[in-house]
C-alpha cells in the first residue's frame, strides 16, 4: 500500500495518533480513531459486496461519519461519489445515471429526495455505529492508480461533469504543497467551510489529512465564529473567497483581534483588492491570491507572499510540480501581456471526466489541462486570471452553470427564450438573474416554484426580467450573452428580489 | 436505478400506439455506410408518418405527399425551431427560421444571384475550380474523395460567389474544414464561427468601398422594400447561413453519389464516353437519390392531418431524402437510373423554404462530373477502408477512399 490516501492516514495514526484529524462543532476525531473507524467502514463495505472500482454515493451535510465513510470507501478501493446535499430529486437522478453507485448513503434530511430519485439509500447512522468496535481490516490494499473520487463540477454544459482523482493524483497534490509551503507542516490547523460534496471541501479534507494537519470544519461561514475560532484554536491556515475576508474585517472585534497564528492565508474566486490586502497587512497578514480549478486538483498556483504585497491581484507562477502556460487558440504560447487560455500540467490533476471520453479529450491534450479560463502572464511569468470561458455564475463560492438554469427556465410554459447572467450580490458575490422573452409576461412566482422544484436552492434565480423584444442574437443565430449582460448591467438595482 | 429523461422513450398521451416506431435519427444501429438504402429499409414497415420516441420524441415523415403537405403549411408547421430534441434558446437563422411572409424579402434579395442565368454565367469558374481540385487529388493515386474533392470544391465556389479574395483560398478552406469537423465541440465552433464572421465582416467593408457584381456587394445594395437595405448583422447572418447551406450539402450529396457511382462500372463507362451529354441527367438522379437534409418543423397550432394528431410543441422531421425515394412516386426508387424520366422530388424541399441554391448545387455536381471523366477512366472503392458517416438533420459521409485509373 504505497502512495495511497490510506497509507498516509495509517502513517499519521502511528505518528500522531492522538492529534485531531478533524474537529467539527467541538467534536474531535483523532487520527487513531479515523484510522480504526474507516477500517471498520471498509470492512463493512466489502461485506456488503462493494468491490474495487465500485462507486459509493454519499448525500449528507458534513459530519464525522461522512469523513469516516470517505476514508473507508477509499480504503476499500471503491470510489467516493458525493452528491450535493442541496440537490433536488431530478438532479440526483441525473447524477446517479452516470455514476451507477453500488451503495448510496444518506443523511436524515436527504433520504426523501433520494427515494424520490428512485434509490433506497442506507442511513448514515449505519456508519456512525461503526465508530467503536473491534479492529477490522479489508483483506486487500488499494493501489495507487485506483480512482478515489468523482467530483461533480459545473461546466458550460447543462449537465455536470465528474472529475476523477486517484490515490496517486491526490497524494501528488498534497506532496507538491508540502514541498512548496513550509508554512503548513504536519500539525497545522486549518479552517474549512465548504461542504464535503464540493471540490473545495473534499480536496481540503483529503489534502490536509494526507499532510497530517487538523481540519476545523465549520458548518457554514459565520464571520464572528471564524474570528473567534482563529484566536481560540490558534488557526494557522485559512482559505476563502475575498468577500469572506471583508465580512471578518467588518466585525467590530476585528480591530483588537490577535491573528498572529495565521501563517498561510489565501483567497480565490475573485480578485484580492489593494484595500483588502492593506486591511490585513495592518494585522501582519498577507492575503495571497490563488488560482486553480477542480480539474487541476484544486489550487494550481499561489502568489508568493513577498510578491503579493506589490501585486495582490496576481496568482503566482505555478508550483514545484505545476507548470502553467497561456496559449492562443492554435496552441502557441502567448507573448507576455497577451491574453489567452490558461493551460496547466501537474501530477495532481484529474485523470479525466467520469465516463465522458469526449469532454476528457477536450480538456486533456498532450498532457496539458485546458482550463477554459482566460489569463495573462507578465514578463516575469506571473499569472493574472482575467475571465472564465466557461459560463458560470459563482454564488457564495458555489459554481452555477448558466446553461443548467436556462434549461429549467425554458421548460416553463410561455417562455420562448431565456438567459441566466450573474448579478452582483453583497452577500454571495454573484447571484442568478434571468432575462426571458415570450408573448406575454409569465407568473414569476410560479416560475420560481418550477425552478425550486427542479434546481438546488442556490441555483434558483433571484431576479427575473421580462423582455418584450426577442433577446439579441449573434450572426451565428445564437443568443448573444455579452449583449444581454450589457443591457442588464444595472437591472438588479431596479428589479425586486423574487426569493 | 432511475433513468434521466434524455434516455427515456417519450410518448405523449396524444400519440396513438399504432403510430409509434422506434428510430434514433442520430445513431440507429440499422443504418450503415450506404446511408440512404439502409435508412429506407429500417423504416420501410413504419407508417407514412410515425412517432419516434427517441431524442425527446418527434414525428418523422417519410412519404413525398405528406412532406409536401407539411412543408407548404407554415400556419401549423413553423421553422421557428429546428433542433431535435428541442433545446433551450434554439438558434435563429435568417431567413431559415422565419416563416412567410417574413422570409420573403430576404429570398428576393438572394434570388437573382441564384437563378439559371447567374449560375450559367458562373459555370466557367466552377469548371476551372473542379479541374484544379481533381488534378491535385489525382496526383495522390489513392485518395479520400471527401477530403480531397467533395469538401474543397464547394468552399471554392462559395468564395467565388461571394467575391472573396482567392489568394486566401487555403486559409479559408482550412477554416471551413475545421468548422465542419468540429461540429460536436461547442467551444471550437464558437471560436471558428467568430473567425468566419470576421472574414465576412472584412468582406463587407471591402465591398462597401469597392463594389463588384458578386453576391456580397449585392447584399449590401439589395432593396428590402421601401428603400431599406440590410443591416450589417442581417448580412452577416445571411452569409453565415449560405456558408452552412452551401458546403455540407453539396459536399455530401456529391459524396454519397460518388460512393454509388464507384460501384457502377457500366455507368462510369457511359459517362466517360459522353460526359457532356449525360452529366446533367446524372446530377439530377444524384440529387434525387442522395439528398442529405432532413427539415425539422415545430407544430405551432394543433391539426389532424393524414390521420395524425399533430399537437402544439411537437417536433416534426421531414425526411426529404427518403421522400425522394418514395416507391409510390418512383419505379425502383433505390436504383440509380440516369435514363429515368424526370419527375419532381423533394430533396430541395418545397414551398416557402425551397432550397435557394438548387440550381447552383445541381450545376456544381454536373460540372464536377464532366471534369472528373475528362481525367478519370474508372474508379472504385478502396478495398477494406472504412467509410464513416453521420446521420441526424444533415446526413454526411465523412470519408470515401477511392482507387482511380486515370484517363490516358
Mean pLDDT of chain A: 92
Number of strands of chain B: 12
* Count of individual helical segments of chain A: 17
* Helix share, percent of chain B: 40-55%
Question: Which protein chains make the most extensive interface, counting residues with beta carbons within 8 Å of the other chain's beta carbons?
Answer: A-B, 34 and 25 residues
| Cα distance spanning the termini of chain B | 66 Å
Helical percentage of chain A = 25-40%
Chain oligomer state: heterodimer
- The rounded Rg of chain B comes to 21 Å
Average pLDDT of chain B, rounded to a whole number, is 91
Strand and helix order of chain B: HEEHEHHEHHHHHHHHEEEEHHEEEE
3D architecture notes:
The complex is a heterodimer of chains A (499) and B (408). In chain A, 52% of the residues are buried. With 499 residues, chain A is α/β, with parallel strands linked by helices. In chain A, the strands form six sheets. In chain A, strands 2-1-10-9-11-12-13-14 form an eight-stranded mixed β-sheet, sandwiched between helices. In chain A, strands 15, 16, 18, 19 and 20 form a five-stranded antiparallel β-sheet that branches. Chain A is built from 17 helices and 25 strands. The radius of gyration of chain A is 23 Å and the shape is globular. The termini of chain B are far apart. Chain B has 408 residues and is of the alpha+beta class. Chain B has 14 helices and twelve strands. Chain B has helices spanning 35-42, 64-71, 104-114, 116-138, 145-150, 152-162, 169-181, 186-209, 215-221, 232-261, 265-273, 275-289, 320-323, 358-375, and strands at residues 49-52, 58-61, 77-78, 143-144, 295-299, 303-305, 308-310, 315-318, 376-381, 389-390, 396-397, 401-406. In chain B, a hairpin with a 5-residue loop joins strand 1 (49-52) and strand 2 (58-61). Chain B has a single domain, classed as Cytochrome P450 (Cytochrome p450). The interface between A and B is medium-sized, with 34 and 25 residues.
Amino acid at each position: 500500500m504505497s502512495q495511497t490516501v490510506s497509507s498516509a492516514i495509517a502513517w499519521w495514526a502511528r505518528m500522531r495518533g492522538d492529534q485531531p484529524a478533524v474537529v467539527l462543532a467541538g467534536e474531535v476525531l483523532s487520527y487513531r480513531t479515523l484510522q480504526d473507524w474507516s477500517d471498520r467502514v471498509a470492512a463493512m463495505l466489502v461485506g456488503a459486496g462493494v468491490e474495487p472500482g465500485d462507486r459509493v454515493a454519499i448525500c449528507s451535510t458534513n459530519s464525522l461519519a461522512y469523513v469516516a465513510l470517505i476514508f473507508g470507501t477509499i480504503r476499500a478501493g471503491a470510489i467516493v461519489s458525493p452528491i450535493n446535499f442541496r440537490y433536488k430529486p431530478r438532479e440526483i437522478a441525473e447524477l446517479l445515471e452516470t455514476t451507477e453507485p453500488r451503495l448510496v448513503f444518506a443523511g436524515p434530511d436527504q433520504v426523501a429526495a433520494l427515494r424520490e430519485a428512485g434509490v433506497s439509500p442506507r442511513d448514515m447512522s449505519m456508519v456512525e455505529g461503526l465508530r467503536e468496535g473491534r479492529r477490522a481490516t479489508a483483506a486487500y490494499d488499494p493501489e495507487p492508480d485506483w480512482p478515489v473520487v468523482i467530483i461533480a463540477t459545473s461546466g458550460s454544459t447543462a449537465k455536470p461533469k465528474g472529475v476523477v482523482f486517484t490515490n496517486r493524483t491526490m497524494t501528488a497534490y498534497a506532496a507538491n504543497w508540502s514541498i512548496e509551503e513550509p508554512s503548513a507542516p504536519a500539525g497545522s490547523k486549518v479552517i474549512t467551510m465548504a461542504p464535503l460534496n464540493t471540490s473545495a471541501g473534499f480536496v481540503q479534507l483529503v489534502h490536509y489529512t494526507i499532510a497530517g494537519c487538523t481540519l476545523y470544519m465549520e458548518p457554514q461561514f459565520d464571520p464572528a465564529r471564524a474570528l473567534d475560532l482563529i484566536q481560540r484554536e490558534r488557526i494557522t491556515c485559512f482559505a476563502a473567497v475575498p468577500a469572506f475576508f471583508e465580512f471578518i474585517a467588518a466585525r467590530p472585534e476585528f480591530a483588537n483581534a490577535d491573528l498572529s497564528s495565521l501563517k498561510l492565508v489565501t483567497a480565490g474566486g475573485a480578485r484580492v483588492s489593494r484595500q483588502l490586502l492593506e486591511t490585513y497587512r495592518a494585522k501582519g497578514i498577507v492575503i495571497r491570491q490563488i488560482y486553480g480549478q477542480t480539474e487541476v486538483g484544486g489550487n494550481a498556483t499561489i502568489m508568493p507572499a513577498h510578491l503579493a504585497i506589490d501585486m495582490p491581484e496576481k496568482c503566482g507562477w505555478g508550483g514545484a510540480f505545476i507548470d502553467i502556460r497561456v496559449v492562443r487558440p492554435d496552441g502557441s504560447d502567448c507573448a507576455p501581456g497577451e491574453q489567452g487560455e490558461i493551460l496547466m500540467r501537474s501530477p495532481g490533476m484529474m485523470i479525466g471526466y467520469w465516463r465522458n471520453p469526449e469532454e476528457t479529450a477536450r480538456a486533456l491534450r498532450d498532457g496539458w489541462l485546458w482550463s477554459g479560463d482566460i489569463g495573462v502572464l507578465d514578463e516575469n511569468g506571473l499569472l493574472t486570471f482575467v475571465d472564465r470561458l466557461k459560463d458560470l455564475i459563482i454564488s457564495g463560492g458555489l459554481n452555477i452553470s448558466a446553461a443548467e438554469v436556462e434549461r429549467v427556465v425554458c421548460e416553463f410554459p410561455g417562455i420562448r427564450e431565456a438567459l441566466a447572467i450573474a448579478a452582483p450580490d453583497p452577500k454571495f458575490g454573484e447571484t442568478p438573474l434571468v432575462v426571458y422573452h415570450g408573448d406575454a409576461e409569465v407568473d414569476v412566482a410560479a416560475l420560481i416554484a418550477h425552478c425550486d422544484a427542479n434546481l438546488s436552492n442556490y441555483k434558483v434565480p433571484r431576479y427575473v426580467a421580462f423582455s418584450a423584444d426577442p433577446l439579441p442574437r449573434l450572426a451565428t443565430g445564437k443568443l448573444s450573452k455579452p449583449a444581454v449582460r450589457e443591457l442588464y448591467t444595472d437591472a438588479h438595482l431596479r428589479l425586486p428580489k423574487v426569493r | 436505478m432511475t433513468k434521466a429523461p434524455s434516455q427515456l422513450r417519450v410518448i405523449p398521451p396524444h400519440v396513438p400506439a399504432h403510430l409509434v416506431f422506434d428510430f434514433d435519427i442520430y445513431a440507429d444501429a440499422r443504418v450503415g455506410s450506404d446511408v440512404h438504402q439502409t435508412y429506407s429499409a429500417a423504416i420501410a414497415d413504419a407508417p407514412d408518418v410515425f412517432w419516434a420516441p427517441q431524442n425527446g420524441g418527434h414525428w418523422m415523415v417519410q412519404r413525398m405527399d405528406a412532406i409536401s403537405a407539411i412543408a407548404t403549411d407554415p400556419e401549423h408547421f413553423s421553422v421557428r425551431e429546428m433542433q431535435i430534441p428541442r433545446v433551450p434558446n434554439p438558434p435563429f437563422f435568417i431567413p431559415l427560421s422565419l416563416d412567410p411572409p417574413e422570409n420573403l424579402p430576404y429570398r428576393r434579395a438572394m434570388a437573382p444571384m441564384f437563378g439559371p442565368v447567374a449560375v450559367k454565367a458562373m459555370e466557367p469558374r466552377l469548371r476551372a475550380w473542379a479541374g484544379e481540385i481533381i488534378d491535385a487529388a489525382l496526383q495522390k493515386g489513392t485518395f479520400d474523395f471527401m477530403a480531397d474533392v467533395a469538401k474543397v470544391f464547394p468552399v471554392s465556389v462559395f468564395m467565388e460567389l461571394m467575391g472573396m479574395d482567392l489568394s486566401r483560398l487555403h486559409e479559408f478552406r482550412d477554416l471551413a474544414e475545421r468548422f465542419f469537423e468540429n461540429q460536436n465541440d461547442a467551444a471550437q465552433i464558437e471560436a471558428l464561427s467568430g473567425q468566419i464572421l470576421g472574414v465576412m465582416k472584412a468582406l463587407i467593408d471591402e465591398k462597401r468601398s469597392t463594389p463588384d457584381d458578386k453576391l456580397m456587394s449585392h447584399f449590401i445594395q439589395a432593396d428590402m422594400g421601401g428603400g431599406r437595405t440590410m443591416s450589417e448583422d442581417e448580412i452577416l447572418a445571411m452569409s453565415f447561413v449560405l456558408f452552412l447551406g452551401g458546403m455540407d450539402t453539396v459536399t455530401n450529396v456529391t459524396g454519397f453519389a460518388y460512393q454509388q457511382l464507384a460501384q457502377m462500372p457500366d455507368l462510369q463507362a457511359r459517362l466517360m464516353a459522353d460526359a457532356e451529354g449525360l452529366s446533367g441527367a446524372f446530377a439530377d438522379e444524384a440529387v434525387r437519390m442522395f439528398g442529405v437534409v432532413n427539415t425539422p418543423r415545430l407544430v405551432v397550432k394543433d391539426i389532424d392531418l393524414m390521420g395524425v394528431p399533430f399537437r402544439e410543441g411537437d417536433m416534426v422531421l421531414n425526411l426529404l431524402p427518403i421522400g425522394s425515394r418514395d416507391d409510390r412516386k418512383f419505379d425502383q426508387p433505390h436504383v440509380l437510373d440516369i435514363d429515368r424520366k424526370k419527375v419532381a422530388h423533394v430533396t430541395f424541399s418545397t414551398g416557402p423554404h425551397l432550397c435557394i441554391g438548387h440550381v447552383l448545387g445541381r450545376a456544381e455536381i454536373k460540372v464536377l462530373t464532366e471534369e472528373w471523366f475528362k481525367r478519370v477512366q474508372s474508379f472504385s472503392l478502396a478495398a477494406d477502408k472504412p467509410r464513416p458517416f453521420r446521420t441526424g438533420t444533415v446526413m454526411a459521409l465523412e470519408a470515401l477512399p477511392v482507387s482511380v485509373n486515370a484517363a490516358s
